[in-house]
Amino acid sequence: MNWSRKSVLVTGGAGFIGSHLTNKLHELGANVIVVDDLSTGDRKKVKATCNVFVEGDVSQSNTYAKLGEFDVDYVFHFGSPSSVILFNEKPDDCIHKTIFGFRRIIAFAEEHNVTKVIYPSSGSVYGDAPVPQTEDMMPKPTNLYGVCKLTCEQLARLSLDKVPSVGLRIFAGYGPGEETKGEIASVITLFLRAILNGKRPIIYGDGRQSRDFVYLDDIITAVLRAAEADFTGVVNVGSGKAHTFAEVVELINRLLGKSVKPIYVDKPQKYLEKTLASREIQDKILGAPATVLTDGLKKLLGTYAQQT
Question: What CATH superfamily is the domain 179-209+242-273+302-307?
Answer without folding.
Answer: UDP-galactose 4-epimerase, domain 1 (3.90.25.10)
